[in-house]
Every structure is written in structure tokens, then in C-alpha cells.
User: Fold this.
Amino acid sequence: MNTYQNKIELKNIKKYFDDKIILNDININLKEGEFVSLLGPSGSGKSTIFNIISGLIKPNEGEVLIDTDSRVSYMPQKDLLLPWKKIIDNVSIPLTIRGYSKKNARDKVKDYFKAFSLDGYEYKYPSQLSGGMRQRAAFMRTYINSKDIMLLDEPFGGLDAITKSNMHEWLLNVLERFNTSVLFITHDVEEAILLSDRIYILSDKPASVKEEIIVDLDKKRSKDIVTSKRFNEIKKYILDIM
Assistant:
């Protein structure tokens, strides 16, 4: 685990809906350049944590601290690409919202298409792309919005197993090139171990942190690591906790 400053810190967060407690004393942090996963059952309140970080809802108790020099971007499970816009215009939406002209926004994002394995698809429409390519476009748009902190809410949950595996490998390669801090939601144990530096295990509702796992695997990983002895030791330990 690195020793850089926290990009995000949640301290003693509690959240109620209609007097029913959803989050109970949540304490998590994300450091610069880290990939941290929130792993827990579906419906346990993971997305509520993201909504609190994003400022969409307020906690009833506790404190949310975000590095003042950072921006936060949020990528949900669905790609939410606008079907009437070409991919280059979809990914440049964050820039046009900030006041860039269409031409200037296109000029600023076009060099990223090769890095995100989408070169040649700049002027295609979303309907002309596969599911995996659409997710890559959505990821690029999220990155364009903020290179500092990315919140990824089960972005590969709707993909088939082969496409999901390919996306994992693609994401590891992309993150190796960019110093981005990522907070990632999943209920897939193998996915969390493969991608993460650390994992917070969340209980079912009301969600609390059951344990923090440091993933002591080589930082440079390939999808073949899922067959390694240490990977499967970590997997067994997490399954026993859950």
C-alpha cells in the first residue's frame, strides 16, 4: 500500500432512508494512484456510498473529505452513451459542458482514442460498437471528465464472461499508463482481487466494513494470475469472511 495522501476519506458515515439505516459507520479511504474496491452483496449500499461521495445525497452522520485539488468523475454500470452522437462527441461531452467548442473538444480528446483502444471508431455511433467497446468509450469519457479520481460502479457487470475478462486486461493496461485513483464497486470476488490494491469487504444492509484486505500481488498483473496460489488463497480468505 502506498503512503501518498488520501484522495478520498469517509469518516464514520451513517445513512438512513425512512428511518431505516443503510450505511452504518463506514470508514474508507483512497490514496493517490490506488485502485480500491468495495466488495459486497448486491443491494448492500455500495452505490449509496458513491452517491454520498459525488454529493448527490448527504450522509446523516459522518464526514466526507476529498482532496481539494482533485475532481471526481462517476461511471455507472450502463454506458449512457447518447445514441444520436458520434463516439468522439460522446466522450467530449465533459469538455463541451465546460464551454469548449465542438471543434476544440474534438481536438482535445482525439489523441486518447489509441490509448483507449478505440482508434478508428471516432466517428461511429454507439449502435455500431460492441458492448465492450461502448464501455471503453464510457470509461474514456469518465477519464476526460476527471483524471484524478474515478468512481466505477460495476462497469463490467452487464458483459458476458469473455468480454469481461478482456475488459479486465484492457483496464489493467490503461491504468498502467495513467496515474488515476480509482474506487470500484463490485460483487465479483475474482474481479476485485485481480484489479485492486486494497479491498473493503462490506456486510449486507446495514452496510458496515467487515474487513480491509491488502492485495499483496505483483502490481503488474495479467488475467493468468487468477490461477496462482496466492490469488486463490486471498479468494478463499475473502469467501470465508463473506
In short: Residues 78-145 form one domain.
